[in-house]
Specification:
This protein is an alpha/beta fold. It has two domains: about 240 residues, Spore Coat Polysaccharide Biosynthesis Protein SpsA, Chain A (Alpha-Beta Complex), CATH 3.90.550.10; about 70 residues, no CATH class. It has twelve helices and nine strands. Helix 1 links the parallel strand 1 and strand 2. About 40% of the residues are buried.
């Protein structure tokens, strides 16, 4: 089985460097690595090449173009460039355990009826029980999310663990699935775009988590915090509601209860931080139901779901020294 790994990144060179170092240490290297860099500067590109080593660099397609409009578009660029049977998506702020890709390959071989398989986030093993209970209490019915409990209890689990959606910080999909489905490019930031992809085929395709494939998700310091974070989360769920809940009214009660949970979370954070910013941000995000501009820059509801614009990997980013230098020869595409 051939495996392509796709890593979208933007202005997080230190995080990317740590991820690539962990990729280099894998017991099973990817057959193809595709880094889709949306940074305006050249720091990530330069560090990436230095971090990979010759063995990984010769398998790498490095797409550097700051005009790519967000993480979903970046993943779609990676899908178009991938030529393997399985495409594994990684966030740039994860660090893989040494046998992660080997375990993912074993999972896909052992479970041919699963369209997508993800791994566990090791930091969740040490999360407070209240964090898990929050999801158990407020995410009910079709919004029930087992991923967090699976990651917390992975040592006691055997075999594939069925879930309704995957988190693309560490998740792979079969090529035949991706040939029919793409990430909605209106999601500009990493929010619910991965859950949205899985919900598009809810009840039609199977997804699962393989407890033996794991990574540390470090949640980059470059991520937004405070009111902006809660505004983005609220706007994300509003957009999700527009796409899925309003076409299936039976989901509305569970969605309202989920929204109560978001409010409880924001109120708790406001009290502990002694700042109104989390609650104010949440309310601004909810207002995107009536004013789509309040979802920007995280979600562009006016954009096309999938762009028809082709990105030429060979063009590079203007002003990037690593792009201007002669790149290492790329391997010829594999014939599957």
């Amino acid at each position: 089985m051939l495996i392509s790994v796709v890593v979208p990144t933007r202005e997080r060179p230190q995080d990317l460097q740590k991820l690539l170092a962990s990729l280099l240490q894998q017991t099973r290297l990817p057959d193809q690595l595709i880094v889709v860099d949306q940074s305006q500067g050249g720091e990530s590109h330069a560090l990436a090449k230095d971090s990979m080593g010759a063995q990984l660099w010769e398998r790498c397609t490095y797409v550097h173009n700051s005009s790519i409009p967000g993480v979903s578009a970046a993943r779609n660029v990676g899908i178009r460039a991938a030529d393997a049977e399985v495409v594994i998506f990684l966030d740039d702020d994860v660090v893989l355990t040494p046998d992660c890709l080997e375990a993912m390959e074993s999972a896909f071989v052992a479970n041919p009826d699963y369209a997508g398989i993800g791994g566990v986030e090791l930091q969740m093993e040490h999360s407070a029980l209240s964090y898990i209970l929050y999801y158990d209490i407020f995410f009910v019915g079709p919004f029930r999310d087992r991923k967090y409990r699976i990651s917390r209890n992975w040592r006691r689990l055997q075999g594939i663990q069925p879930v309704t959606g995957l988190k693309t910080c560490l998740a792979g999909f079969r090529r035949e699935f991706l040939a029919q489905h793409r990430f909605d490019e209106r999601w500009r930031s990493a929010l619910l775009e991965d859950i949205d992809l899985c919900w598009e085929v809810r009840g039609q395709q199977r997804f699962g988590i393989w407890p033996r494939a794991s990574a540390w998700h470090n949640f980059s310091e470059a991520r937004s915090a405070g009111g902006a974070r809660y505004q983005a989360a609220a706007a994300a769920w509003i957009f999700f509601m527009r796409k899925h809940v309003l076409t299936h009214w039976s989901l509305l009660p569970a969605f309202v209860w989920l929204s109560v949970g978001l409010l409880v979370n924001a109120a708790r954070r406001s009290m502990t931080s002694r700042s109104i910013a989390p609650i104010a941000g949440l309310i601004r995000g909810w207002r995107s139901l009536f004013d789509a501009s309040l979802a920007l820059p995280d979600i562009d509801m006016s954009a096309d779901p999938v762009s028809s614009q082709a990105i030429n990997p060979g063009l590079g980013e203007p002003g990037c020294a690593a792009c201007l230098r002669a790149a290492a020869p790329r391997p010829a595409p594999r014939q599957l």
